[in-house]
GNAT family N-acetyltransferase (Kitasatospora purpeofusca), 265 residues
Amino acid sequence: MNSLPSQTRSDNRPPVVTRVTDTEWHAVENGLPVGRGDVSQRPDGRLFVSVDAWHAPVFDRIAAAMTAALPAPLYAVVDETDHESAAAWHRVGFTTGRREWGYVVPTDPRVTGLGPVRPPAGVTLVPAGEAEEAPLRTLDRLVRAEVEAGAGWRTMPAEVLPRPAWSTMADPSKYAVAQEADRYVGMVRVAPLTRQPRIGLVAVLAERQRRGIARALLAHTLASLHRAGTVSAWAEADEANPAATALLESIGARRTGAALELVHP
């Protein structure tokens, strides 16, 4: 979202905001485009909106049109240091719901201290791209159910990707898993982005937690990235999730910023 201070306007006629598709709004003034708004649905069902406008009044009109047309609650994300954007959203009725820290995660085992880490007895690690899809999707559903029954899936980082309503997993090849006996009990998702891979999720079934499986999955994943020549990865963690932040910081991850998740009730 790009919101800049309002500049002197040639007249007082307000821009015309039109919903051009189910997910897109355009603002036109004197025949010229002056802003746009978009909405996307995340895998957990929440609607996230964004507005790109040069003038503050245009931003306000687009945001008003979107909040009037879409079911509440609505969400938006801004960089914590982008005070101007945060103020724009607050001006139209959004409030800060949560903060998500961003981390640069080293991959070198000599830095992370994960070199000697191995999975517990009876647990084997299946590299990304080699997991069987059916049991992987079963694990994904179980993890999501446990998260939703606890802190809520809204506290977990989520990729904004189009996918069928019945599918919670866009690309199974991104997942490495921990297997115990005949089932999967933990997983880590890595998006192989060109500039810096993104660790989108580390999860272990509740009944198998506190056994070192998550650390073993991270050790395996980061070592694989290191061997491929990747110096660091990117990860996010909700500031209200002390287990996640402690795990990242224990392996030398460096906090580099934060994103604010805003909500319109």
Summary: The radius of gyration is 21 Å. The mean pLDDT is 87. The chain is about 25% helix and 35% strand.
